């Protein structure tokens, strides 16, 4: 996880405008901000749709696939083998046409892209082309909703653990700057250059293949235990390795970044002043170091929340974790555009929403920042 | 030059930087060694080669050095042939143009495991009358097993394990274990084995040549994969590919980001506004999904992926960071001076603004190399690796697809993974140290 340390008040113009009422100022700011973010989201989603469907290449794949499927299903149907060949060909063509109409292949790419876009923006995610949810539905919304708990469980547990443990440990280390543990964290921080799935492979090797104490992948034992306690235990057992690799891959860098950040703030004059006054170190930490770093910590927390929703595509794939990331990977393999676009939309909306809310959060926690100036 | 010297001196004080630098040098050396030792076309031929290129190697063979760590002895693979005299051949001329050819190959077998396979590749030269061979197998405990009597064609492959006559003669379905074990105890017999082949030709110019291929459990320095390929080829060639991808991507991304940020800040107005809007849109786009889409729908070529990676990585948070610094630098006195003596805008951007930022650029550039190296590997693991080039990620993907972890072929994953890890850590360590040297604010902390 990259820790953002640039000054947060950049996006909020702090000028001395002669606005007469706070309400007017804030509402004007909200409207412009929402508009720009809205335009950003629209363009972002349109680009995704275009990439997912550019040049009609995917259409050709889908057309051929439909042609094959329809021809084969008719050829395999004994009732239709007696038919006159010309009539049968006509039937095949009709079926292909109706199938193409069903998934919208009968209109030009540009029109279809706009249709996708308007549906996407209204969150009408539509029906998947090839994939189905485990309960058999083709609704993209249901497929995504079905995979979401798995992703949220894994990512939520690991990312929240990572966040709180690294902030806490970093605060501790910044007090013990220069000790053995501090040096150890600094020395180990380059280990975060390695992505989580990579640690995952090593974890599988050690704990699943060699020691045989934890499962290779998946989410629960098969068949799933009926009893709730057993089910949770089985879930927990399957979650250890992917969770551990997600945490491990960012752990030391995250601590290092927060620690460096806290150290920079604790060398400020007002911190020395507070110490000179004889305030207990707990108070110094809370009121003089944590407080001014709050905007940055909130930004990181918000970014973390966004990563929860998208999941970790490759880590989920390596551990066969049935989450959103792995679904996305499958969808791309099956050329299932509605699912690809669907997950992008949710991501884009969430990101825009987070950015929007962050502006207000900054104004709340940072007295120097004023919404709308 | 002076500043370079200072930097190097400063680097010397950080042990992690020294280690990182050594790793980077070793990688660059390996990359050049690989490219000189195995030229590009040869590497592609070997990597894409099938059974015809790699028939001499066993499948899924671990590297030979695991014998040092194992209490059991694994049989090492080998192949010998009469054409390069590694298998001795003796020709005795008979009368009426006939000749007798004796080929004897003794070898010591001390392994605790039965070899995977044994094959004879026979080639012969004749006009009309086919030559004839008979093969015998001599075990260390003095048994003599008749293997086969064959009239041979121009090119012929004899597989010990698939000879039905030999199976009935030995009363077994698995010929190879039978050849290496004592029929009474069923234990493996170690010692000197001998393969004796006697050939007879019936024409003056007729000749027989032979290659004996022995597939053990272990092979060479790096082992082999499911297609019998020697893993040293992709491991060696993965180095230049990984370095090229990582360095070009990070260099391209950081330099372009900085140039665009500098231009935007200097000219301001709509350009600056446009750059900021593009950045906001780009942040909304899911990076990995788009790369996966490009790989799946358009092209898996490493150069296309590289281009897309650079394009998508330019307009990120980094551009905002550079911008905020350029805004400050733009107001400094020396820029004012440059303007006063009449420097043109491009001159100011490229000779005054950008050089000022190089100290910030270098640590970021070095630290971002691992991310790109691993990105390439990640895409390969998802099955989107370059279809032609051998890379480390592709080895991991092959291994994963063949269930290497479940089936115990750990070497297959560990070798490329170790190399990736060393590369990543090497650059990361160097980058960290450079960051501390160039950003004095961090130095005391």
Characterise the protein shown here:
The complex is a heterodimer of chains A (373) and B (445). By secondary structure, chain A is an all-alpha fold. Chain A has helices at residues 22-52, 57-76, 78-81, 85-102, 109-121, 140-175, 180-188, 196-210, 228-266, 269-277, 281-310, 313-318, 324-333, 337-365. The longest helix of chain A has 39 residues, at 228-266. The two termini of chain A are 32 Å apart. Chain B has 445 residues and is α+β, with helices and mostly antiparallel strands. Chain B is built from 18 helices and nine strands. In chain B, the strands form two sheets. Chain B has a five-stranded antiparallel β-sheet, with no helix packed on it. In chain B, strand 2 and strand 3 form a beta hairpin. Chain B is elongated and about 105 Å long. The two termini of chain B are 28 Å apart. Classes of the chains: A mainly alpha (373), B alpha+beta (445). The interface between A and B is large, with 56 and 51 residues.
SSE layout and pairing:
The complex is a heterodimer of chains A (373) and B (445).
Chain A: H1 22-52, H2 57-76, H3 78-81, H4 85-102, H5 109-121, H6 140-175, H7 180-188, H8 196-210, H9 228-266, H10 269-277, H11 281-310, H12 313-318, H13 324-333, H14 337-365
Helix pairs in contact in A: 1-5, 1-14, 2-4, 6-9, 6-11, 6-14, 8-9, 9-11, 10-11, 11-14, 13-14
Chain B: H1 2-12, H2 15-37, H3 40-48, H4 51-54, H5 66-69, E1 78-81, E2 89-93, E3 99-109, E4 117-125, E5 132-138, E6 144-151, E7 155-159, H6 164-170, H7 175-180, E8 191-201, E9 207-215, H8 232-267, H9 269-284, H10 287-298, H11 302-314, H12 317-330, H13 333-340, H14 345-381, H15 392-401, H16 404-407, H17 410-438, H18 440-443
Antiparallel strand pairs in B: 1-9, 2-3, 3-8, 4-7, 4-9, 5-6, 5-8
């Amino acid at each position: 996880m990259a820790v953002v340390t640039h000054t947060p008040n950049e996006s909020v113009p702090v000028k001395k405008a002669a606005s007469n009422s706070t309400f007017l100022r804030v509402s004007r700011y909200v409207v412009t901000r929402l508009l720009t973010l809205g335009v950003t989201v629209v363009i972002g989603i349109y680009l995704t749709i275009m990439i997912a469907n550019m040049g009609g290449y995917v259409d050709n794949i889908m057309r051929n696939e439909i042609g094959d499927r329809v021809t084969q299903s008719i050829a395999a149907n004994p009732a239709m083998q007696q038919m006159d060949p010309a009539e049968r060909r006509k039937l095949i063509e009709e079926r292909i046409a109706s199938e193409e109409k069903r998934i919208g292949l009968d209109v030009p790419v540009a029109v279809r892209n706009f249709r996708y876009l308007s549906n996407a923006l209204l969150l009408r995610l539509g029906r998947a082309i090839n994939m189905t949810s485990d309960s058999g539905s083709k609704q993209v919304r249901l497929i995504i909703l079905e995979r979401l708990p798995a992703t949220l469980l894994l990512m939520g547990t690991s990312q929240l653990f990572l966040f709180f443990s690294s902030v806490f440990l970093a605060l501790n280390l910044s007090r013990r700057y220069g000790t053995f543990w501090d040096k150890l964290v600094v020395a180990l921080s380059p280990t975060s250059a390695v992505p989580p799935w990579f640690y995952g492979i090593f974890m599988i090797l050690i704990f699943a293949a060699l020691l045989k104490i934890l499962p290779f992948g998946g989410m629960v034992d098969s068949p799933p235990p009926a009893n709730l306690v057993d089910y949770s235990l089985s879930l927990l057992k399957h979650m250890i390795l992917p969770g551990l690799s997600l945490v491990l891959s960012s752990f030391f860098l995250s601590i290092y970044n927060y620690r460096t950040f806290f150290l920079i703030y604790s060398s400020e004059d007002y911190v020395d002043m507070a110490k000179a006054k004889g305030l207990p170190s707990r108070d110094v930490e809370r009121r003089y170091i944590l407080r001014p770093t709050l905007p940055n910590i909130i930004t990181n927390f918000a970014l973390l929340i966004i990563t929860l929703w998208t999941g970790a595509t490759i880590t989920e794939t390596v551990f066969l974790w049935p989450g959103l990331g792995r679904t996305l990977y499958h969808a791309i393999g099956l050329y299932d555009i509605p699912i690809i676009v669907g997950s992008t939309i949710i991501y884009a909306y969430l990101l825009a929403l987070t950015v929007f809310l962050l502006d207000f959060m900054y104004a709340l926690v940072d007295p120097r920042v004023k919404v709308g100036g | 030059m002076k500043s370079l010297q200072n930097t190097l001196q400063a680097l010397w004080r950080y042990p992690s930087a020294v280690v990182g630098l050594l790793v980077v040098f070793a990688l660059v050396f390996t990359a050049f060694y690989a490219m000189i030792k195995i030229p590009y076309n040869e590497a592609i031929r070997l990597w894409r080669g099938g059974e015809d290129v790699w028939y001499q190697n066993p499948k899924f063979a671990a590297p030979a050095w695991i014998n040092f760590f194992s209490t059991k002895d694994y049989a090492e693979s080998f192949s010998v042939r009469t054409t390069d005299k590694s298998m001795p051949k003796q020709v005795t001329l008979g009368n009426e143009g006939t000749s007798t050819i004796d080929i004897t190959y003794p070898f010591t077998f001390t392994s605790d495991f039965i070899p995977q396979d044994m094959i004879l590749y026979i080639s012969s030269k004749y006009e009309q009358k086919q030559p004839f061979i008979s093969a015998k197998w001599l075990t260390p405990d003095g048994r003599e097993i008749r293997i086969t009597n064959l009239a041979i064609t121009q090119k012929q492959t004899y597989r010990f394990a698939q000879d039905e006559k030999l199976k009935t003669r030995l009363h077994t379905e698995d010929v190879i274990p039978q050849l290496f074990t004592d029929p009474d105890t069923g234990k493996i017999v170690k010692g000197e084995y001998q393969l004796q082949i006697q050939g007879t030709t019936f024409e003056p110019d007729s000749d027989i040549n032979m290659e004996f291929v022995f597939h053990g459990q272990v092979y060479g320095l790096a082992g082999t994969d499911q297609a019998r390929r020697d893993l040293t080829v992709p491991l060696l060639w993965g180095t230049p590919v990984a370095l090229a991808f990582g360095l070009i991507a990070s260099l391209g991304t950081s330099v372009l980001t900085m140039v665009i940020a500098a231009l935007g800040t200097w000219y301001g107005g709509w350009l600056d506004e446009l750059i900021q809007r593009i950045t906001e849109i780009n942040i909304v786009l899911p990076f990995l999904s788009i790369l996966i889409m490009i790989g799946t729908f358009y092209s898996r070529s490493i150069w296309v992926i590289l281009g897309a990676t650079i394009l998508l990585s330019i307009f990120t948070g980094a551009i905002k960071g550079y911008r905020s610094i350029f805004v400050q630098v733009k107001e400094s006195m020396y820029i004012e001076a440059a303007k006063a003596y009449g420097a043109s805008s491009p001159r100011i951007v490229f000779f005054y603004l950008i050089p000022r930022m190089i100290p910030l650029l270098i640590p970021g550039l070095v630290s971002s190399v691992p991310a790109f190296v691993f990105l390439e590997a990640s895409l390969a693991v998802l099955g989107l690796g370059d279809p032609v080039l051998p890379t480390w990620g592709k080895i991991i993907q092959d291994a994963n697809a063949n269930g290497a972890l479940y089936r115990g072929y750990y070497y297959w994953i560990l070798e490329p993974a170790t190399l990736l890890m060393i590369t990543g850590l090497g650059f990361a360590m160097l980058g960290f140290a450079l960051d501390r040297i160039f950003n004095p604010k961090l130095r005391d902390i």
